[in-house]
Amino acid sequence: MPADLNPFELWLTVAALVAGCGVGGLMVWLEQRPRLSLAPRLVPTTPILFLGAVVAILALVHLINLMGIHTGR
Question: 62 exposed, middle or buried (CB, 10 Å; 0-12, 13-18, 19+)?
Fold first, then answer.
């Protein structure tokens, strides 16, 4: 680990990663539940699922960058 690593930034990034995975997992679980009626759901699960996945991917890339591996250009 780099010596100039800020522990607050590390924990914030890990929290964003866990939150993104949690939101994505919750939305997948909501999608997989059996439907009891044909009424549309009040919560649009697919866009929220993609938003959670994007947050998780960005947090993972940021965590890799914090560890010293440079991604991108």
Answer: middle
Report pTM: 0.85
- What would the two tokens of residue 59 be? 């947090």
Indicate the SS3 state at residue 43. Answer: coil
User: What is the chain's pLDDT, residue by residue, as a tens digit (73 residues)?
Assistant: 677 788 899 999 999 999 999 999 999 999 999 989 899 888 899 999 999 999 999 999 999 998 888 877 7
Distance between CA atoms of residues 13 and 61, nearest Å: 10
Residue with tokens 């991604």: 71
Which structure tokens are listed for 37?
A: 């009626």
**Could you say which DSSP state residue 38 is in?**
S
